[in-house]
Write a structure and sequence with these properties.
By secondary structure, the chain is α+β, with helices and mostly antiparallel strands. About 35% of the residues lie in helices and about 10% in strands.
């Protein structure tokens, strides 16, 4: 069983989404950041940096394994469940790690500004197909805030 220490922030959503995509059983441990839940001794034993998200994998080999920081959690889960992480050795690992770290947190935040250039680069590098925007593409749809 995996415990996900979570708050509804862009970085918190990343491992939550991956756990759902993996169809893995997990317990959601909601952290109230407004009350300083991340600064408790219990949570600092999991993540000494007092930041969320974090997970504790109780089924890890040997003893429970704590993993913190969203990119590290995504990598850990993808490798543990052998999904969403391609084979290819160290070079592939480094390239994928760069992309995981470069996708902005706001990409998963509903209503937040999205760095479309970063997201476009991710998809352009990941596909061999020629991609063109649909004929009905309107950039103003992706502009948040003032119109």
């Amino acid at each position: 069983m995996i415990d996900l220490y979570f708050a509804p922030t862009p970085n918190g959503w990343k491992p939550a989404i991956l756990l759902e995509e993996l169809w893995v059983d997990y317990r959601l441990k909601l952290l109230d950041l407004t009350k300083g839940a991340q600064f408790t001794e219990e949570f600092r034993a999991i993540n000494p940096n007092a930041k969320m998200p974090a997970i504790v994998d109780h089924s890890a080999e040997g003893s429970p394994q704590a993993v913190w920081e969203s990119a590290a959690i995504l990598m850990y889960l993808a490798r543990k469940f052998d999904r969403f992480w391609p084979e290819g050795g160290a070079r592939t690992d480094w390239e994928l790690t760069q992309w995981i770290r470069s996708v902005p947190s706001s990409f998963v935040a509903f209503g937040a500004t999205i760095s479309l250039a970063s997201v476009a680069q991710l998809f352009l590098r990941a596909t061999t197909q020629s991609l063109a925007p649909p004929k009905s593409f309107r950039p103003s749809v992706f502009t948040f805030g003032s119109r």
